[in-house]
Amino acid sequence: MSPLHRINPAELSPPTGFSHAVTATGGQLVFLAGQTALDQDGKVVGAALPEQFATALTNLLTALRAAGGAPADLARVTVYATDVADYRTHAVELGRIWRQLAGRDYPAMAVIGVARLWDEQALVEIDGVAVLP
After folding, report:
1. Is-contact 122 49, C-beta < 8 A?
2. Which of 23, 47, 66, 73 has its CB surrounded by the most CB atoms within 10 Å?
3. pLDDT of residue 1
4. How far is it, in rounded angstroms, from Cα 75 to Cα 25?
5. Under DSSP, is residue 123 helix (H, G, I), strand (E, B) or coil?
6. pLDDT of 4-39, one tens digit each?
């Protein structure tokens, strides 16, 4: 049984691609460092946001799996975007990418606009917290 319970109160706007709250009981916490669209050689790949998002999410999930977790174990994810308007424009496609890579067990999430990321070519960075059973 998962240590995570997703809560979406009827009094709040229906969530799309996130959960309003996630509780965790027991388990082991995994703090996942921010991941961008870096390849194994440390180069940013992908010119457009959807490509970079897919690589950054893949990198995050790779770190999670190496720690013994799975996408459904994600309790909290923060997405840092250099262009929130571009993020909103691609929201449907980004949601599709999320579902393909991470499924439909949505964590509590936030998207935060930032002036820039560590690598100037990076358009998005994703970090998170997971709870392993």
Report:
1. no
2. 73
3. 67
4. 11
5. coil
6. 889 999 999 999 889 999 988 888 999 999 999 999
